[in-house]
Design a protein that fits this description.
Blueprint lengths: L6 H14 L9 H12 L15 H10 L1 H20 L3 E5 L5 E6 L1 H9 L10 H4 L3 H8 L3 E4 L11 E9 L5 E10 L7 H21 L3 E6 L11 E6 L2 E5 L1 H7 L11 H4 L11 E4 L5 E7 L29 H15 L4 E4 L6 H11 L7 E5 L5 H9 L17 H4 L4 E5 L6 H13 L1 E2 L8 E2 L3 E6 L3 H6 L5 H7 L2 E4 L9 H11 L8 E2 L1 H9 L5 H15 L4 E2 L6 H6 L8 H18 L4 H8 L3 H8 L2
Helix pairs in contact: 4-8, 11-12, 22-23, 23-24
The chain binds adenosine-5'-triphosphate (ATP).
Length: 616
């Protein structure tokens, strides 16, 4: 059995290494010793005060946004470790691939202590910044690592005992690190095993998320383990191997460096299994494995990265543009949010309610916290309650054994964005009102209420006052969330539509590609009713950038439904605008032979919007 270094032997090792300058072989593990040497070579001195400046505000917001997919994919495991961490006075930490902390949650007591040594979101825990520690050392070693008490390089970290495991994507790129940290004085026997187990599940999910739609081979030496997170997974493009999880590497002797170069026949002598049945496979060394294959459309050639592309929004979503009126509305909204006064954003579909909410959050004092967005219209009635409030294990059929914290608790310290609040079922409205009054969330199925602190932004396309008058929306909830209303104008009602179109054209790369919009085409674009608002406008311009048959876009290059609109319709009242939007929707539906999905795609609105707006 492996012997753990005692506090006495670690202290003796420190004296030899840091005071006498000799190598204390045998007193600490070689892994720790190697790390201490790297830190010293890197110029880190234990005699100097460690100065760490964690990212905060918008920098932290951007970081979280960039790694939103990683956080989402890790959520189930983090939730189950969170319950354990709270009970054992420790915390779960998720970091970006370079060791910068994205999230830390668990025991409030220990979170506070950890925060004093900068173990908190935005802080860089790479070895070169913080010295030997489980996160940074796991990144360098590319394996699970435990670092306890005085094994940490810097003395203030002696209070910590940490276990961390790197998360790899199916091409061998480091995607992040999962860590469990607690007091060094408490013995956390299973911490390393628990993070390893959690990472195994995360990597399995990451693999299926990246390659699950393509050709995948599941394999194991034990047929019973196929279909579990322990199985080996290989992804193929044609017969070329393009992805593998760690179990598959161990089972086949393949390495990530060989991806893209090795083919199925390089590894196996029997044909690629294609059915649902588990079959025996022979590899080139003559050993047997069991496998099940699934041959489908080839996967994307470039697997989706866990991080969003770069700090900007990439070419497909232009950076938001706000006119003077919107900028004024933004300032007002930020002031309301900072004063914790709830308000509602009201605007048609695609007017940028979510874009607006994200911008408000970014500029607000809660910008370093999370923005948790919930679309109340997108969940079936039974599910939204569990998603919002969380539940205790076994609360209902299909509930996860370990329960779930719920989105309201995830928004703690940040902002909750409730989109389509007007579609929230009445029963849920009562429960939600109680949360706002009591500032605490009680999970479904019992259990104590947990205090929560978040600001709220609500959004809807509905006329909430009319919904209240019709008895579909609770008046007391309405007054609670919509004391203030910020209205977002539809594109067709904006004063400077040509300016907006020119801005989007530039942002989408039209100008850089040497393309210009001709005067007549511009007039048609300005006059179009744009029922899908910014979403539809940006989509149309994007298509024109890509498909432009000439350097100057003429009317003849515009989509037929825009050309037909021609001159600006006479619009006097909002009712008139609604009618124009709806007639455009009906026309699109007729032109797509009643196919709602196709019509919604053409208009740049969601299917639910079409159903909603055209229902009798
Ligand atoms: N101010 C803006 N500047 C540039 N593009 C914008 C702006 N607002 C919205 N968009 C574009 O329109 C798309 C839709 O925006 P968003 O999802 O915020 O609208 P929404 O009002 O919440 O729509 P829905 O009600 O259908 O959910 C965005 O992805 C973005 O591409």
């Amino acid at each position: 059995m492996k012997r753990m270094p005692t506090t006495g032997s670690v202290d003796a090792a420190r004296r030899r290494f840091f005071d006498a300058g000799t190598l204390p072989h045998g007193l600490v593990s070689e892994l720790i010793l190697q790390s201490w040497r790297r830190c010293r070579e890197h110029g880190l001195s234990v005699d100097e005060r460690l100065r760490i400046e964690p990212a905060s505000g918008s920098a932290l917001g951007e970081l979280k946004e960039r790694f939103e997919r990683l956080q989402r994919l890790c959520r189930p495991e983090i939730e189950s470790l969170y319950a354990d961490a709270r009970a054992t006075g420790s915390i779960v930490v998720l970091t970006a691939p370079d060791g910068v902390i994205l999230d830390a949650l668990g025991s409030a007591d220990f979170l506070d202590k950890a925060s004093r040594v900068a173990l908190r979101p935005g802080a860089p825990w790479g070895e070169t910044s913080i010295g030997t520690n489980a996160i940074g050392t796991a990144v360098v070693e590319r394996r699970a690592v435990e670092v306890r008490g005085g094994e940490h390089y810097f003395p203030p970290h002696r209070m910590l005992s940490c276990a961390a495991a790197p998360i790899f994507d199916p091409t061998g790129q480091l995607a992040g690190v999962l860590d469990l940290s607690g007091e060094a004085s408490v013995h956390h026997t299973h911490a390393l095993g628990m993070v390893r187990f959690a990472v195994e599940q995360i990597e399995h999910r990451l693999f299926m998320h990246t390659f699950g739609a393509g050709t995948v081979l599941r394999l194991h030496a034990e047929p019973g383990l196929i279909g579990t997170p322990r199985e080996g997974l290989l992804a193929f493009e044609g017969d070329r191997i393009v992805g593998a999880n760690r179990h598959a590497l161990a089972l086949t002797g393949l390495s990530w460096d060989e991806l893209g170069r090795r083919r199925y026949a390089d590894l196996f002598t029997s044909p690629l299994p294609r059915g649902e049945d588990v079959v025996e496979l022979r590899n080139h060394l003559g050993t047997s494995l069991y496998a099940r294959g699934r041959v489908a459309a080839p996967p994307r050639s470039a697997p989706a990265s866990v991080a969003a592309p770069g700090p900007a929004r990439g070419a497909t979503a232009p950076a938001p543009v706000f006119d003077a009126e919107q900028r004024h509305a933004l300032d007002t909204a930020v002031r309301l949010l900072d004063a914790d006064l709830p308000f509602a954003l009201i605007g048609e579909t695609g007017t940028g309610k979510e874009v607006f909410a994200r911008e408000i959050h970014r500029r607000s004092r809660r910008g370093s916290g999370r923005l948790v967005a919930v679309n109340c219209a997108a969940f079936p009635e039974g599910l939204i309650e569990a998603e919002l409030f969380g539940y205790v294990g076994g609360a209902f059929t299909g509930a996860r054994r370990e329960g779930a914290a719920g989105l309201l608790r995830e928004a703690h310290g940040g902002v909750l964005f409730l989109d389509e609040i007007g579609d929230m079922p009445l029963t849920l409205q009562s429960r939600f009102l109680r949360v706002l009054q009591e500032r605490a969330v009680a999970p479904l199925g019992g259990g104590p209420a947990v205090p929560v602190d978040f600001s709220i932004i609500c959004a809807t396309h509905r006329d909430l006052e009319a919904e209240v008058a019709a008895g579909r929306f609770r008046a007391d909830l309405y007054f609670r969330i919509a004391q203030h209303v910020v209205r977002l104008r539809p594109v067709r009602a904006l004063d400077d539509r040509a300016g907006l179109i020119r801005h989007l054209w530039r942002a989408l790369g039209g100008e850089a590609a040497g393309l210009a919009i001709g005067a007549e085409a511009m007039a048609v674009l300005c006059a179009a009713p744009w029922p899908g608002n910014y979403r539809q406008l940006a989509g149309t311009l994007r298509a024109l950038c890509v498909l432009a048959p000439a350097p100057v876009i003429g009317v003849e290059h515009l989509p037929a439904e825009l050309r037909r609109v021609g001159a600006p319709p006479p619009v006097a009242a909002d009712e008139g605008l609604q009618a124009i939007a709806e007639s455009a929707m009906r026309r699109a539906l007729a032109e797509c032979d009643g196919n709602v999905s196709a019509a919604a795609r053409r208009l740049g609105v969601s299917r639910s919007t079409l159903y909603r707006r055209l229902r009798p």
